[in-house]
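Q: I'm writing up a methods section and want to include an example of the input and output format. Could you take the sequence below and give the corresponding predicted structure tokens, formatted cleanly so I can copy it straight into the document?
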Amino acid sequence: MLIDSHCHLASHRFDAAEVPDLIRRAREAGVTRLVSLATSLSDVEDNLRIAARYEEVSVCIGIHPCSVHEEPDNAVAQLSAHAADPRVCGIGETGLDYYHPAPDGWEEAAYHERQRDFLKAHFEMAVATGLNVVIHTRDRSGDASFQDALAIYRLYAERVSAVFHCYIGDAENARKVIELGGLVSFGGVTTFKNAGQALQTALAMNDGEFMLETDSPYLAPMPYRGKRNEPAYVRHTAEFLAKARNVTLDELAKTTSDAAKLFFRWRI
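A: Here is the clean output for your methods example:
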């Protein structure tokens, strides 16, 4: 049993008519649960419709940091109306993105401050709803977005947990997340030949401290690097990491799935 803990089934890169085949191929690959993440107000309903059709799909609701300039000030409050929906299992994708330049009409400092404000609002919603938070961080260089997001997480860590998804940082920073009660999640980047740090971090984690994901349609693992990703491909990452960690695929699938069940608070 494998779980894709982070994908985007409502992405514009997936035609709605493709979703049945995406789910079918995931099932054939041994993927029994998928978490599809909203990144804006406009795609929440699309994600919920997919989850209504497929029992193995759950949804996280959030505003991606690269979308905060397009959303109203009360966007997170609007999201909260969906938090009690049984299809919703988490808050996100939220976070901080210092990689992409500020959009037209925005100063970088103000853009980043709005991202931080939105991230805090997501945490406040998580506290109110009892759901956990999925965090994106990305930098052009260094780890400022990670450190800023970690500082915000620290304010809420006694009340909610967070996963830093698609983690490619070093083990020292990953350990800081774990010490706060959070998780990291690894995707296809760990299979890349030039992704030594991501792989070394994955090898340094203990069972129960990390999940698996695709972030599809992005960041496909080897041997599909450069092509469109999809949930079925989480199996390639799992097989790669199982071999690297010297465990069986079934063992890795169990520990990562158990971590996902706890994080998303699934009873089964």
